[in-house]
């Protein structure tokens, strides 16, 4: 159910609409489920981790565009059934667009804000795609239709402006000149409020003209994004339509501004204490959106009667320009767009909360009268008075000629001013028509070229900006790069683009691409350095991230679907070339694990950012390299569950060989800060200034050195439940499966004084430990083959670990400069009262041994002993006798409980004494039976079955250690990425051999255990026969 558009005019509060889009390809591949439901104008969102946790929100308009639609032959999305719940583009426009248009025609300022995370459907709702036109083009069509329908009663003038705010810089997207360094300035006047100085406003008299200007602005936006190395999802786009209506009969003029705002993506980088950055977030990149949130919160507080001292309009460019739209002279609508997928829960909930605050804001909209028209009226009134005076002077005949001459001069001056004001619109319109004709001629020429020549087509992360730039490759040889002096050159700008980057040759209807020295060129995901012949729909990446799709001659094109070659496709090819893919021939070709898919999309999102960071580092002479790694969280899980993975960025200072590991959130923040430094460097370079050295503590490429987690090894604790000692050689595995070192470790069950237990102390049933004391030692003997030290001898290592409920890790002393260091570290642990929970932990978990790398200048890791419980002998207590989780008893209840316990204790003592007597009697009978069955020689007593079984179990544990090592080798055994067919055959043979070895070892171990158990059972039966 939707509110009617006429409802918008009764109040001046901000109206809020929410729209839910369909699943995108990424969410469908991930098997996402819908967590948003809609009833009338209410939205309900469910926490995917807790089905009972639901939040409900109510808004002025709610649009269900997630399901219930189909596409007609022209590609238009329409409801499957007439009157269905699906809200198409027309439905949204009828509610929001018609209301905004009617407000503007009445003389009110009107604003439409689109808010939501990147990819949630903001651009689709605002601009649309193909036949599914969005609010902006539909609004322009209806505006000029209304102007034509009312042209008898009023004269209308429409001016169009288009700007972008990126990194707190204003870019005029319709500017005909070069971009102003630092962007346009925002100024303030008492009458006009905040405005952009020098912003081009273009008069328009038809909707096609407006669409043409939007295309021109989009083209400029694409070029600016490439040139500035900017991410369009972090920029705000504003379209400003100025409508001036002159009612000649009533001598009234109404002037209104229609602000159509596509805000930057609202997603926030998830951060936690472990991801805290010493540098604050890239403030300029997020300042406008953050300040907008602060303004909306402050205005919402004002609306509910709270005392607010300050509303921070002046804190950002965006909020300055939107001051009238938020709490000022405007009628405002916000459309918040949502993804219904469970993987977007946090962002969708944040968007709903933001929109809920916005709907509380109240504006003070008034009809606007044009100051220019007021001047015309005043001039006309003054002229009428002057004419009256002249006529009176002519009638009286007594006034001097001087006064008459002066009055006529004033009258002529006023008439000239009136004529100038009235002809200004026609002049502007004529100039705009000339520009429009030139643009139309350019478009016609471009379409003609498309039917004659091959070309490359830009592909952008923002689908709106893809396909905007077409660079034609005519016959002959063409240089492509920064150079634009030659007539046979194709000029492009972007990070990593050289003066002469590559050469296209178009000969005999064959197009080849030849990279020049030190130029980065990638074709279909693979770097090329030799001349390569291009095929229709080949994917090109020039420099760091200038992405293009090659379109061949018209005869080659056929009916191919080009839409699948989007920005993600390019990055997926790069990831596949690095060995990171989801299987199959393309992304999503199989039903992938959702967590793995999320990591894959994180990876392809970061690929271009890492390439750009490396290029900026190179151009700024930072000598820092960035590389992506996939961190397997199972390496830090004591149960070894392979549940999740995450992306981290490895940062290496090349000369000093220092290494850092940054989280995804930290890297993204640093990347924006790097952009600021790089753009400042470029601006100073253009002005011929020398770049001042950046203080190290403000340098986004630098961090203080700190210990680095190199890898982990799992030492399984199950043997402790049977009080069997264990000696292992553990492979310390890095986050990408690389072997970082071999660690020799032991688990030694012992007495309370530290003496190792013997075979007679082995337990058959671990439950015998319940309630008893358990002591053991963790021994770390030696590390061998440290890859970290091999790379640079000035480094050191430490081993960290924690057991059971310990919150603080323990560390071995640091060892430096040694590839095979002796650790000789021994820690004694005890459980004073073994519980079932500890027993379960020992049988199912491992102690995770963390290998930490130390670098020159960083401090050693210290064990936090103050948080540990210890005995007087210095033994670490992992479990004490548990206390009952009951409420404290009063003294009377306590004394009753003590008496009852004493009585029970006496009964148990008497029962224990009788059992001891019975035990002594049975032992004497057993000895008699044994002596009777033995020979006169008096052979030694056979070992008990329990001891024999314990020895068999110990042998089995040790044999399984080698089996486990063989399994780990199998897991790591992978073919080389460069393997040819022969190499793959050799790999299959080697893998088969490893599998046979593993099978044989496992079979031998199990067979030996079966034989030992069978022998023990047989001997037990023989003894039973003797005893009987």
User: Helix coverage percent of residues?
Assistant: 25-40%
Task: Using the alpha-carbon principal axes, give the shape.
Answer: elongated
Number of E strands: 42
Q: Return residue spans where pLDDT drops below 50 for at least 5 consecutive residues.
A: 1-10, 269-274, 583-591, 883-892, 933-943
Major sheet summary line: 9 strands, mixed
Number of continuous helical runs: 20
Helix-and-strand structural type: alpha+beta
Which band does the percent of strand residues land in? 15-25%
Mean pLDDT: 80
Rg from alpha-carbon coordinates = 39 Å
State the end-to-end CA separation.
Answer: 89 Å
Domain Kinesin motor: 13-361
InterPro entries: FHA_dom, Kinesin_motor_dom, Kinesin_motor_dom_sf, P-loop_NTPase, SMAD_FHA_dom_sf
Family: Belongs to the TRAFAC class myosin-kinesin ATPase superfamily. Kinesin family.
Function: Microtubule-dependent motor protein required for mitochondrion morphology and transport of mitochondria in neuronal cells.
Explained architecture:
The protein has 1028 residues and is α+β, with helices and mostly antiparallel strands. Strands 1, 5, 8, 11, 12, 15, 16, 17 and 18 form a nine-stranded mixed sheet that branches. A six-stranded antiparallel sheet has the order 20-19-29-28-25-26, with helices on one face. A five-stranded mixed sheet has the order 22-21-23-24-27, with no helix packed on it. Helix 2 crosses helix 4. It is elongated, with a radius of gyration of 39 Å. Residues 1-10, 269-274, 583-591, 883-892 and 933-943 have low confidence and may be disordered.
């Amino acid at each position: 159910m939707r509110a009617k558009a006429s409802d918008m005019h009764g109040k001046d509060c901000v109206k809020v609409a929410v729209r839910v889009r369909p699943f995108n390809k990424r969410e469908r591949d991930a098997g996402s489920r819908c967590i948003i439901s809609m009833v009338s104008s209410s939205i309900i969102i469910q926490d995917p981790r807790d089905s009972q946790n639901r939040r409900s929100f109510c808004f002025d308009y709610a649009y269900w565009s997630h399901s219930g639609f189909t596409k007609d032959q022209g590609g238009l999305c329409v409801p499957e059934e007439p009157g269905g719940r699906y809200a198409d583009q027309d439905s949204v426009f009828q509610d929001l667009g018609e209301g905004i248009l009617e407000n503007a025609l009445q003389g009110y300022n009107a604003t439409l804000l689109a808010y939501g995370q990147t990819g949630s459907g903001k651009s689709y709702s605002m601009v649309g795609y193909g036949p599914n036109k969005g609010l902006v083009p539909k609004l322009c069509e209806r505006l000029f239709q209304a102007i034509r329908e009312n042209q008898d009663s009023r004269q209308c003038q429409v001016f169009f402006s288009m700007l972008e705010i990126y990194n707190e810089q204003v870019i005029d997207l319709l500017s005909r000149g070069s971009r102003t360094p630092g962007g346009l300035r925002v100024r303030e006047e008492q009458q006009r409020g905040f405005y952009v100085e020098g912003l081009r406003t273009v008069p328009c008299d038809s909707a096609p003209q407006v669409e043409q200007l939007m295309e021109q602005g989009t083209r400029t936006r694409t070029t600016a994004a490439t040139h500035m190395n900017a991410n369009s999802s972090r920029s705000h786009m504003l379209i400003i339509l100025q409508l001036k209506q002159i009612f000649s009969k009533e001598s009234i003029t109404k002037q209104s501004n229609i602000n159509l705002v596509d805000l930057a993506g609202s997603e926030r980088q998830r951060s936690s204490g472990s991801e805290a950055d010493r540098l604050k977030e890239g403030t300029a990149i997020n300042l406008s959106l953050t300040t907008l949130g602060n303004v909306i919160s402050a205005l919402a507080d004002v609306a509910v009667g709270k005392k607010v001292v300050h509303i921070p309009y002046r804190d950002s460019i965006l909020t300055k320009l939107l001051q009238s739209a938020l709490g000022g002279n405007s009628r405002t609508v916000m459309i918040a767009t949502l993804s219904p997928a469970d993987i977007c829960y946090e962002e969708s909930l944040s968007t709903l909360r933001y929109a809920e605050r916005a709907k509380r804001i109240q504006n003070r909209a008034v009809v606007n009268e044009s100051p220019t028209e007021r001047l015309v009226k005043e001039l006309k009134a003054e002229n009428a008075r002057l004419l009256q005076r002249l006529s009176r002077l002519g009638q009286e005949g007594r006034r001097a000629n001087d006064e008459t001459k002066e009055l006529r001069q004033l009258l002529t001056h006023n008439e000239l001013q009136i004529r100038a004001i009235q002809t200004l619109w026609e002049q502007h319109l004529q100039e705009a028509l000339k520009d429009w004709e030139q643009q139309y001629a350019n478009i016609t020429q471009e379409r003609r070229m498309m039917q004659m020549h091959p070309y490359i087509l830009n592909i952008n992360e923002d689908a709106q900006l893809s396909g905007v730039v077409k660079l034609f490759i005519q016959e002959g040889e063409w240089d492509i790069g920064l150079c634009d002096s030659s007539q046979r050159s194709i000029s492009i700008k972007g990070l990593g683009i050289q003066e002469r980057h590559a050469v296209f040759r178009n000969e005999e209807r064959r197009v080849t691409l030849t990279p020049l020295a030190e130029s980065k060129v990638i074709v279909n995901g693979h770097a090329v350095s030799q001349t390569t012949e291009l095929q229709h729909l080949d994917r090109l990446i020039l420099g760091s991230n200038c992405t293009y799709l090659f379109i061949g001659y018209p005869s080659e094109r056929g009916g191919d679907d080009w839409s699948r070659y989007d920005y993600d496709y390019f990055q997926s090819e790069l990831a596949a070339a690095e060995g990171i893919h989801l299987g199959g021939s393309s992304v999503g070709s199989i039903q992938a694990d959702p967590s793995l898919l999320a990591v894959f999309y994180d990876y392809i999102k970061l690929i271009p950012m890492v390439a750009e960071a490396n290029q900026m580092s190179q151009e700024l002479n930072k000598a820092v390299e960035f590389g992506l790694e996939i961190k397997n969280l199972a390496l830090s899980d004591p149960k070894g569950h392979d549940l999740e993975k995450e992306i981290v960025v490895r940062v290496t200072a090349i000369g000093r060989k220092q290494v850092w590991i940054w989280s995804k959130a930290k890297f993204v923040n640093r990347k924006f800060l790097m952009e600021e430094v790089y753009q400042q460097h470029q601006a100073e370079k253009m002005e011929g200034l020398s770049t001042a050295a950046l203080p190290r503590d403000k340098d986004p490429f630098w961090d203080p050195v700190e210990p680095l987690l190199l890898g982990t090894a799992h030492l399984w604790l199950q043997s402790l439940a049977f009080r069997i000692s264990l000696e292992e050689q553990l492979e310390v595995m890095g986050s990408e499966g690389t072997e970082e070192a071999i660690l020799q470790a032991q688990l030694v069950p012992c007495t309370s004084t530290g003496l190792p237990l013997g075979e007679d102390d082995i337990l058959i049933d671990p439950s015998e430990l319940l309630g008893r004391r358990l002591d053991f030692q963790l021994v770390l003997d030696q590390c061998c083959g440290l890859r970290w030290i091999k790379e640079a001898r000035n480094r050191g290592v430490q081993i960290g670990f924690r057991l059971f409920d310990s919150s603080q890790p323990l560390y071995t002393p640091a060892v430096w400069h040694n590839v095979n260091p002796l650790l000789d570290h021994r820690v004694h642990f005890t459980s004073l009262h073994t519980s079932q929970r500890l027993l379960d932990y020992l049988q199912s978990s491992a102690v995770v041994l963390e290998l930490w790398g130390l670098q020159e200048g960083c401090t050693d890791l210290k064990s936090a002993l103050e948080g540990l419980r210890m005995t007087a002998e210095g033994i670490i207590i992992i479990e004490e006798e548990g206390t009952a989780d009951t409420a404290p008893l009063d003294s009377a209840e306590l004394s009753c409980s003590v008496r009852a316990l004493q009585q029970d204790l006496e009964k148990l003592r008497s029962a224990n004494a009788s059992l001891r007597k019975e035990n002594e009697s049975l032992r004497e009978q057993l000895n008699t039976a044994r002596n009777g069955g033995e020979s006169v020689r008096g052979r030694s007593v056979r070992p008990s079955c329990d001891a024999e079984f314990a020895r068999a179990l110990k042998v089995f544990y040790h044999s399984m250690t080698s089996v486990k090592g063989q399994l780990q080798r199998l897991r790591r055994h992978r073919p080389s990425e460069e393997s040819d067919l022969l190499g793959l055959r050799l790999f299959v043979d080697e893998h088969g051999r490893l599998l046979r070895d593993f099978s044989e070892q496992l079979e031998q171990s199990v067979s030996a255990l079966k034989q030992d158990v069978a022998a023990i059972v047989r001997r037990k039966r023989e003894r039973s026969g003797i005893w009987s």
